[in-house]
Amino acid sequence: MAKLNLTLPGRRFVIGVPSVWLVVFFMLPFLILLYISFVDMGNDISPFKPIWDSETGLLKLKYENYYSIFQSSDGGGLFQTIYIEAYVRSIWYALCTAVLCLVMGYPFSYFIARSAPSLRPALLMMVMLPFWTSFLLRVYAWKGILADQGVLNQMLLALGLITEPIQMLYTDVSMLVGMTYVYLPFMVLPLYANLVKMDIRLLEAAYDLGASPFKAFWLVTVPLSKAGIIAGFMLVFIPCVGEFVIPSLLGGPENIMIGRVVWDEMFTSNNWPRASALAVVMIGLIVVPLAVYYHFTGDPAEARH
Q1: Comparing 7 with 135, which gets the higher pLDDT?
Q2: Residue 223 vs residues 220, 226, 229: alpha-carbon distances, Å
Q3: d(CA 208, CA 215)
Q4: 44 falls in which pLDDT band (50, 70, 90)?
Q5: Which residues pair with residue 59 across a beta bridge?
Q6: Contacts of 101 (CB under 8 A, 6+ apart)
Q7: What is the pLDDT of residues 240-249, one digit of tens each?
Q8: For residue 177, which of 246, 277, 269 has the smallest C-alpha distance?
Q9: Could you tell me the pLDDT band of residue 75, with boundaries at 50, 70 and 90?
Q10: Category of 206 on φ-ψ map: left (φ > 0), alpha (ψ -120 to 50) or beta
Q11: Which of 272, 298, 239 lies closest to 93 in space, CA to CA?
Q12: Cβ of 65: how many Cβ atoms within 10 Å?
Protein backbone atom coordinates (compact mmCIF):
# COMPACT_ATOMS: atom_id res chain seq x y z
CA MET A 1 0.00 0.00 0.00
CA ALA A 2 1.37 3.38 -0.98
CA LYS A 3 2.36 5.75 1.78
CA LEU A 4 0.25 8.83 2.41
CA ASN A 5 2.09 11.73 0.81
CA LEU A 6 0.99 15.09 2.13
CA THR A 7 1.67 18.05 -0.12
CA LEU A 8 3.85 20.86 1.18
CA PRO A 9 0.88 23.22 1.81
CA GLY A 10 -0.88 20.40 3.64
CA ARG A 11 2.08 19.82 5.91
CA ARG A 12 2.37 23.52 6.60
CA PHE A 13 -1.31 23.70 7.50
CA VAL A 14 -1.17 20.69 9.83
CA ILE A 15 1.88 22.09 11.63
CA GLY A 16 0.84 25.73 11.42
CA VAL A 17 -2.60 25.50 13.05
CA PRO A 18 -1.39 24.15 16.43
CA SER A 19 1.65 26.43 16.27
CA VAL A 20 -0.55 29.50 15.83
CA TRP A 21 -2.81 28.27 18.62
CA LEU A 22 0.15 27.94 21.00
CA VAL A 23 1.53 31.35 20.08
CA VAL A 24 -1.82 33.16 20.45
CA PHE A 25 -3.15 31.41 23.55
CA PHE A 26 0.08 30.55 25.39
CA MET A 27 3.10 32.53 24.25
CA LEU A 28 1.43 35.96 23.94
CA PRO A 29 -0.35 35.77 27.33
CA PHE A 30 2.89 34.60 28.94
CA LEU A 31 4.83 37.50 27.40
CA ILE A 32 2.19 39.93 28.70
CA LEU A 33 2.48 38.33 32.13
CA LEU A 34 6.27 38.56 31.97
CA TYR A 35 6.04 42.23 30.97
CA ILE A 36 3.72 43.11 33.86
CA SER A 37 6.04 41.32 36.31
CA PHE A 38 8.80 43.89 35.59
CA VAL A 39 6.74 47.09 35.78
CA ASP A 40 5.50 49.25 38.63
CA MET A 41 1.94 50.24 39.43
CA GLY A 42 0.97 53.63 38.03
CA ASN A 43 -1.16 56.40 39.49
CA ASP A 44 -2.73 57.85 36.36
CA ILE A 45 -5.10 56.46 33.75
CA SER A 46 -2.64 53.72 32.80
CA PRO A 47 -2.53 51.07 35.55
CA PHE A 48 1.22 50.51 35.02
CA LYS A 49 4.16 52.85 34.74
CA PRO A 50 5.99 52.74 31.38
CA ILE A 51 8.85 50.29 31.22
CA TRP A 52 10.78 52.41 28.70
CA ASP A 53 12.26 55.78 29.70
CA SER A 54 12.06 57.93 26.56
CA GLU A 55 14.44 60.56 27.96
CA THR A 56 17.33 58.29 28.89
CA GLY A 57 16.53 55.48 26.47
CA LEU A 58 16.86 52.90 29.25
CA LEU A 59 14.60 50.11 30.44
CA LYS A 60 13.22 50.62 33.94
CA LEU A 61 12.73 47.08 35.14
CA LYS A 62 11.45 46.60 38.67
CA TYR A 63 13.35 43.53 39.86
CA GLU A 64 11.94 44.03 43.36
CA ASN A 65 8.84 42.14 42.24
CA TYR A 66 11.04 39.03 42.11
CA TYR A 67 13.36 39.88 45.01
CA SER A 68 10.40 40.16 47.37
CA ILE A 69 9.39 36.59 46.58
CA PHE A 70 12.62 35.18 47.97
CA GLN A 71 13.44 37.72 50.68
CA SER A 72 11.11 40.02 52.58
CA SER A 73 11.73 43.76 52.67
CA ASP A 74 11.96 43.83 56.49
CA GLY A 75 15.34 42.10 56.44
CA GLY A 76 14.18 38.52 56.94
CA GLY A 77 16.24 35.53 55.95
CA LEU A 78 16.56 34.30 52.37
CA PHE A 79 13.73 31.94 51.30
CA GLN A 80 11.84 32.75 54.50
CA THR A 81 8.80 34.45 53.03
CA ILE A 82 5.14 33.55 52.83
CA TYR A 83 5.54 33.11 49.08
CA ILE A 84 8.20 30.41 49.41
CA GLU A 85 6.06 28.68 52.03
CA ALA A 86 3.13 28.76 49.62
CA TYR A 87 5.28 27.32 46.80
CA VAL A 88 6.56 24.49 49.01
CA ARG A 89 3.07 23.74 50.33
CA SER A 90 1.61 23.74 46.81
CA ILE A 91 4.27 21.36 45.49
CA TRP A 92 3.81 19.07 48.50
CA TYR A 93 0.02 18.88 48.10
CA ALA A 94 0.39 18.38 44.34
CA LEU A 95 2.83 15.50 44.90
CA CYS A 96 0.56 13.87 47.48
CA THR A 97 -2.44 14.23 45.17
CA ALA A 98 -0.55 12.77 42.20
CA VAL A 99 0.63 9.79 44.28
CA LEU A 100 -2.89 9.15 45.62
CA CYS A 101 -4.33 9.38 42.10
CA LEU A 102 -1.69 6.91 40.88
CA VAL A 103 -2.36 4.44 43.70
CA MET A 104 -6.12 4.61 43.14
CA GLY A 105 -6.13 5.07 39.38
CA TYR A 106 -3.71 2.31 38.36
CA PRO A 107 -5.89 -0.62 39.54
CA PHE A 108 -8.96 0.94 37.97
CA SER A 109 -7.14 1.57 34.68
CA TYR A 110 -5.80 -1.99 34.71
CA PHE A 111 -9.29 -3.36 35.33
CA ILE A 112 -10.76 -1.38 32.43
CA ALA A 113 -7.94 -2.42 30.08
CA ARG A 114 -8.39 -6.11 30.95
CA SER A 115 -12.19 -6.10 30.88
CA ALA A 116 -14.24 -7.29 27.93
CA PRO A 117 -14.12 -4.89 24.96
CA SER A 118 -17.90 -4.53 25.09
CA LEU A 119 -17.70 -3.20 28.68
CA ARG A 120 -14.88 -0.72 28.19
CA PRO A 121 -17.01 2.13 26.74
CA ALA A 122 -19.37 1.97 29.73
CA LEU A 123 -16.49 1.91 32.21
CA LEU A 124 -14.79 4.83 30.48
CA MET A 125 -18.09 6.69 30.54
CA MET A 126 -18.19 6.23 34.33
CA VAL A 127 -14.72 7.80 34.55
CA MET A 128 -15.71 10.80 32.43
CA LEU A 129 -19.20 11.23 33.92
CA PRO A 130 -18.10 13.77 36.58
CA PHE A 131 -16.97 16.11 33.78
CA TRP A 132 -20.62 16.48 32.79
CA THR A 133 -21.32 18.47 35.95
CA SER A 134 -19.89 21.77 37.11
CA PHE A 135 -16.45 21.67 38.72
CA LEU A 136 -17.65 24.09 41.40
CA LEU A 137 -20.73 22.01 42.21
CA ARG A 138 -18.62 18.88 42.66
CA VAL A 139 -16.35 20.66 45.14
CA TYR A 140 -19.34 22.08 47.01
CA ALA A 141 -20.77 18.56 47.22
CA TRP A 142 -17.73 17.50 49.21
CA LYS A 143 -18.42 20.33 51.66
CA GLY A 144 -21.80 18.75 52.30
CA ILE A 145 -20.23 15.34 52.74
CA LEU A 146 -17.34 16.34 55.04
CA ALA A 147 -19.01 19.05 57.16
CA ASP A 148 -19.52 18.55 60.90
CA GLN A 149 -23.22 17.99 60.24
CA GLY A 150 -22.57 16.46 56.84
CA VAL A 151 -23.48 13.13 55.34
CA LEU A 152 -20.38 11.24 56.49
CA ASN A 153 -20.53 12.39 60.12
CA GLN A 154 -24.25 11.72 60.31
CA MET A 155 -23.70 8.20 58.96
CA LEU A 156 -20.94 7.48 61.48
CA LEU A 157 -23.10 8.82 64.32
CA ALA A 158 -26.05 6.67 63.21
CA LEU A 159 -23.86 3.57 63.14
CA GLY A 160 -22.54 4.35 66.61
CA LEU A 161 -18.93 4.46 65.46
CA ILE A 162 -18.42 7.96 66.90
CA THR A 163 -20.10 9.93 69.71
CA GLU A 164 -19.51 13.42 68.30
CA PRO A 165 -18.79 14.83 64.85
CA ILE A 166 -15.23 14.59 63.58
CA GLN A 167 -13.55 17.68 62.18
CA MET A 168 -12.96 16.68 58.57
CA LEU A 169 -13.71 19.88 56.67
CA TYR A 170 -11.05 22.62 56.38
CA THR A 171 -8.20 20.17 57.03
CA ASP A 172 -5.38 18.63 55.02
CA VAL A 173 -7.47 15.49 54.58
CA SER A 174 -10.46 17.31 53.11
CA MET A 175 -8.26 19.19 50.65
CA LEU A 176 -6.46 16.03 49.51
CA VAL A 177 -9.77 14.18 49.19
CA GLY A 178 -11.21 16.94 47.02
CA MET A 179 -8.14 17.26 44.81
CA THR A 180 -7.81 13.49 44.39
CA TYR A 181 -11.48 13.16 43.47
CA VAL A 182 -11.34 15.97 40.89
CA TYR A 183 -8.07 14.95 39.21
CA LEU A 184 -8.38 11.15 39.35
CA PRO A 185 -9.75 10.90 35.77
CA PHE A 186 -6.63 12.68 34.49
CA MET A 187 -4.61 9.75 35.84
CA VAL A 188 -6.98 6.96 34.77
CA LEU A 189 -7.36 7.92 31.11
CA PRO A 190 -3.65 8.06 30.07
CA LEU A 191 -2.93 4.90 32.07
CA TYR A 192 -5.79 3.10 30.35
CA ALA A 193 -4.62 4.27 26.92
CA ASN A 194 -1.19 2.79 27.67
CA LEU A 195 -2.30 -0.46 29.32
CA VAL A 196 -4.91 -1.36 26.71
CA LYS A 197 -2.17 -1.54 24.04
CA MET A 198 0.04 -3.91 26.03
CA ASP A 199 0.63 -7.35 24.52
CA ILE A 200 -0.82 -9.96 26.91
CA ARG A 201 1.54 -12.57 25.48
CA LEU A 202 4.39 -10.92 27.37
CA LEU A 203 2.70 -11.81 30.66
CA GLU A 204 2.07 -15.36 29.44
CA ALA A 205 5.77 -15.67 28.59
CA ALA A 206 6.67 -14.44 32.08
CA TYR A 207 4.37 -17.05 33.63
CA ASP A 208 5.94 -19.77 31.47
CA LEU A 209 9.37 -18.71 32.76
CA GLY A 210 8.24 -19.21 36.35
CA ALA A 211 7.32 -15.67 37.39
CA SER A 212 4.56 -15.22 39.94
CA PRO A 213 1.60 -12.97 39.06
CA PHE A 214 2.96 -10.15 41.24
CA LYS A 215 6.48 -10.50 39.85
CA ALA A 216 5.18 -10.52 36.29
CA PHE A 217 3.12 -7.42 37.03
CA TRP A 218 6.05 -5.59 38.62
CA LEU A 219 8.67 -6.57 36.04
CA VAL A 220 6.54 -6.53 32.87
CA THR A 221 3.35 -4.48 33.24
CA VAL A 222 4.70 -1.59 35.29
CA PRO A 223 7.77 -0.89 33.09
CA LEU A 224 5.65 -1.07 29.94
CA SER A 225 3.18 1.43 31.43
CA LYS A 226 5.91 3.93 32.34
CA ALA A 227 4.79 6.40 29.67
CA GLY A 228 1.21 6.33 30.97
CA ILE A 229 2.38 6.79 34.56
CA ILE A 230 4.49 9.82 33.66
CA ALA A 231 1.74 11.35 31.52
CA GLY A 232 -0.89 10.86 34.21
CA PHE A 233 1.43 12.13 36.93
CA MET A 234 2.14 15.31 34.99
CA LEU A 235 -1.54 15.85 34.09
CA VAL A 236 -2.40 15.71 37.80
CA PHE A 237 0.64 17.42 39.30
CA ILE A 238 0.80 20.50 37.05
CA PRO A 239 -2.77 21.81 37.59
CA CYS A 240 -2.67 20.87 41.29
CA VAL A 241 0.29 23.19 41.89
CA GLY A 242 -1.77 26.23 40.92
CA GLU A 243 -5.11 25.00 42.27
CA PHE A 244 -7.25 27.77 43.75
CA VAL A 245 -10.88 26.65 44.11
CA ILE A 246 -10.40 23.46 46.13
CA PRO A 247 -8.03 24.93 48.75
CA SER A 248 -10.36 27.93 49.12
CA LEU A 249 -13.47 25.80 49.68
CA LEU A 250 -12.11 22.71 51.44
CA GLY A 251 -8.79 23.82 52.96
CA GLY A 252 -8.26 25.66 56.19
CA PRO A 253 -6.90 29.20 56.57
CA GLU A 254 -3.40 27.82 57.20
CA ASN A 255 -3.42 25.75 54.00
CA ILE A 256 -2.73 28.67 51.66
CA MET A 257 -1.41 27.51 48.30
CA ILE A 258 0.25 29.66 45.69
CA GLY A 259 -2.95 30.02 43.64
CA ARG A 260 -4.65 31.73 46.57
CA VAL A 261 -1.60 33.95 47.16
CA VAL A 262 -1.63 35.10 43.52
CA TRP A 263 -5.36 35.85 43.82
CA ASP A 264 -4.85 37.88 46.99
CA GLU A 265 -1.96 39.86 45.50
CA MET A 266 -3.95 40.66 42.37
CA PHE A 267 -7.44 41.38 43.69
CA THR A 268 -6.96 42.18 47.39
CA SER A 269 -3.61 44.01 47.42
CA ASN A 270 -4.07 45.22 43.82
CA ASN A 271 -0.41 44.45 43.19
CA TRP A 272 -0.56 43.01 39.70
CA PRO A 273 3.22 43.13 39.05
CA ARG A 274 4.00 40.98 42.10
CA ALA A 275 1.14 38.61 41.27
CA SER A 276 2.54 38.28 37.74
CA ALA A 277 6.03 37.62 39.13
CA LEU A 278 4.61 34.90 41.37
CA ALA A 279 2.88 33.32 38.37
CA VAL A 280 6.05 33.48 36.24
CA VAL A 281 8.10 31.79 38.99
CA MET A 282 5.42 29.12 39.34
CA ILE A 283 5.52 28.42 35.60
CA GLY A 284 9.33 28.20 35.79
CA LEU A 285 9.16 25.74 38.67
CA ILE A 286 7.07 23.45 36.48
CA VAL A 287 8.50 23.97 32.99
CA VAL A 288 12.23 23.93 33.78
CA PRO A 289 12.28 20.52 35.54
CA LEU A 290 10.12 19.07 32.77
CA ALA A 291 12.46 20.41 30.08
CA VAL A 292 15.50 18.99 31.90
CA TYR A 293 13.77 15.64 32.33
CA TYR A 294 12.78 15.31 28.67
CA HIS A 295 16.24 16.48 27.60
CA PHE A 296 17.96 13.62 29.41
CA THR A 297 15.29 10.96 28.82
CA GLY A 298 14.43 11.73 25.19
CA ASP A 299 14.91 9.23 22.40
CA PRO A 300 18.58 9.39 21.30
CA ALA A 301 17.55 8.51 17.74
CA GLU A 302 15.18 11.48 17.61
CA ALA A 303 17.82 13.76 19.14
CA ARG A 304 20.25 12.87 16.33
CA HIS A 305 17.68 13.88 13.73
Answers
A1: 135
A2: 6, 5, 9
A3: 13
A4: low
A5: 52
A6: 180, 183, 184, 186, 187, 232, 236
A7: 998 988 988 8
A8: 246
A9: low
A10: alpha
A11: 239
A12: 23
